[in-house]
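Dear Dr. H.,

I hope your travels went smoothly. While you were away I took the liberty of generating a structure for the chain from your last submission, since the lab meeting agenda had it listed for discussion. I wanted you to have the full record in hand beforehand rather than looking at slides cold. The sequence, exactly as received, is reproduced here:
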Amino acid sequence: MTVMLEKEISVQESLDKNCAIKTINMEIDTITKLRDSLDSTLTKALDLMQSARGRIIITGMGKSGHIGKKIAASLASTGTPSFFVHPAEASHGDLGMITEDDVVIAISNSGESKELVDILNYCKRFGIKLIAITKNPESSLGKACDIVLKLPNNGEACPLGLAPTSSTTATLVLGDVLTTAMIERSGFSKEDFNARHPGGKLGSILQRVSDLMHTGEEMPILEEHSDMQHVLLEMTSKRLGCVGFINSNGELTGMLTDGDLRRCLSPQILEEKAINIMTKNPKTLSKDVMASEVIKIMHDKKITNMFVIEDKKPIGVIHIHDLLNNGVA
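The corresponding predicted structure, in token form, is as follows:
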């Protein structure tokens, strides 16, 4: 009985894997056809999007609408103002969200989604530019739009040939093409990306040293000729495991960590001056360095604290725990 069950499971695993491979291969084939079909129409669509004085409005029904929401979100998060308008809601007042300064991208695999009619008529009435994403340029949608971005007519990976699978994948990829091209055209930077992604893992990685460093009274700073009793008190009270030292001009000249103290601990240490045992010209940072870069520097240099300087003067200090506690890794 057990042997028969194992054989049945083995057969099912084989069937499932074959189905998966067939689906993946068909979707790869569809994307390949999309890639090979790209022409000057893509540039015309991007020119229209870039010249828009308003927003890029994405619309579509059903699965096309779900993909459209992702495209709108990707555009908006990378510097191209965009949002999704549901075609059914548009017919009940949301048409007022679309202005004459906008460009509308309407998605329909067949190009015959009846729910898009009101949006298409509205755009024609007010001279709003339209871009279609469809497999059929001769469809009602294709004929109504100024530019048609054609999807491959390659069928669906669904065994029934009905459920949107390959077509939605191609639409998603085409949306990514538009997004990445707009990023390049606009010169959108990591700094711009950070401004739009303050939360979550992306936000933590894109933080800068200035966002995390300790400043003002939190900084453990002493004059370089301070005696070691003051150094120990400063290091203990500020609880950052280090002290920075400055000269008469306020410039950072050295640094001492709790690890340094342990290595040079002796009965005579309290009689020493900081300038005699500090690490001179320590590794420092600019306030504009990305937090993710600091993690690498600390790992490579095997250090846990770094001072942040401006015009050679300390303006902050950062500990590796500040980075790790804020999700930078």
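Two observations you may find useful: The chain has a mean pLDDT of 90. DSSP finds 15 helices and twelve strands in the chain.

With kind regards,
E. W.
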